[in-house]
Amino acid sequence: MAQPGTLRVAVVGTGRMGADHVRRIQQVTSGARVTAVVDVDAERAEAVAAGVDGCTPYTDPAAAMAADDVDAVLIASPGPAHEAALLTAFAHDLPVLCEKPLTPDAASALRVLEAEQSLGRRRVQVGFMRRYDAEYLKLKALLDSGQLGRPLLLHHRHRNVASPPGWRSEMLVNDSVVHEMDVTRWLLGHEITAVTVLRPTPSANAPDGMQDPQFVVFETDGGAVVDVEIFVNCGFGYQVQAEAVCERGTARIGDGHAMVTNMAGRWGGTIAQDYLDRFADAYDREVQAWVDATRRGEVTGPGAWDGYAAAAVSEAGVRALDQGGRAEVELVERPPLYR
Ligand code: ISE
After folding, report:
1. Which fold, 131-278+310-338?
2. Of 199, 124, 227, 208, which Cα lies nearest the Cα of 163?
3. DSSP string for 293-304
4. Are 219 and 194 in contact (CB under 8 A)?
5. Ligand 1 centre from 174 Cα, in Å?
6. pLDDT at position 258, please?
7. Before 213, cis peptide (omega within 30)?
8. pLDDT at position 2, please?
9. C-alpha of residue 117 to centroid of ligand 1, in Å
């Protein structure tokens, strides 16, 4: 039985990310426990539920959200399933932590935004976990302090060891670079107005037909120019780096120098191999912040507007990738609920 006041969470989607969130809520987060897990694969849901005391497996998100012992929902199913799960959570007036992307395209994200507005209050935190990473938080605090002056440029590097099976070129934009879209908006406080995608000769290690790496450029409404190297089959490790170039100096994060070793005439360190490792602390902080805010009856962190804005930039990015060159971002006016 959950302690009184403990947030009882249904986790929708028990793939890699969802299963990691179940572990996190049970073992790391305070004030919450998992009482339901949902997966279209019944056996997988049962296997995950079997490891958690008092947890019921479901194949239908709506059934889990209607259960008496569910107070909140964490959505970690694939992006195309998010809209239906979010609308069902709204129908039950349940607070939601929704993994990124909010939805795969701007039209569906806008429908979510409209549905949340009709509730009259915010219900959704979006899983842009980099906003909870200690290094990104330091960079944000430094930029906000004004010590470096106005930011002019951001350089991002985003590398994965290997792309998952079934990945396509546009997923580098809407599944990977979506993080840079969000941190750029968050770090600078600007909206992204245009996206250009340049396509170097693909790596011989990329799957057939995949444009990898890509070089993506954002323009912002505050006059900044931002570049992103996305390379999802780099082979050697998981690296996420960012450098801000400002009027009075620069600041860089993500070098991964937590420990440097000297041995046998060489110096060096190790490189994380995936995001669950590199961003483990950020995920822990993100989920704890969601649980704490939800228990206070609040919604904090990146919300549906941020999810929609990232979806609109992704859409422009995919257009720029397909057609070559530059595509402008089409964004609706920011509704009062998100100002
Ligand atoms: C994945 O879904 C993530 O969110 C990771 O942070 C990103 O590095 C990876 O490219 C995505 O596929």
Report:
1. Dihydrodipicolinate Reductase; domain 2 (3.30.360)
2. 208
3. HHHTT---SS-H
4. yes
5. 10
6. 84
7. yes
8. 59
9. 29
CATH 3.30.360.10 boundaries in the chain: 131-278+310-338
What's the CA gap between 72 and 4, in Å, rounded? 15
**311 and 104 Cβ atoms separated by less than 8 Å:** yes
Q: Which CATH architecture has domain 7-129+281-301?
A: 3-Layer(aba) Sandwich (3.40)
Match 């992307």 to its residue by tokens. 101
Residues of the chain with pLDDT under 50: none
Q: Which contiguous run of DSSP H or E holds residue 25?
A: helix 16-27
Tokens 């179940």 identify what position? 22
Classify residue 146 by its DSSP letter: T
Residues enclosing ligand 1, CB less than 6 A?
160, 175-176, 179, 232, 275
Neighbouring CB atoms inside 10 A of 41's CB total: 11
Look at ligand 1, atom 1, and give the residue with the nearest C-alpha: 176
pLDDT of res. 4: 73
Enumerate the CATH 3.40.50.720 domain ranges in the chain, comma separated: 7-129+281-301
Q: What is the pLDDT of residues 120-146, one digit of tens each?
A: 999 999 999 999 999 999 999 999 999
The CA 262 to ligand 1 mean position distance, Å, reads 32
Which atom of ligand 1 has the smallest separation from the CA of 172? 10
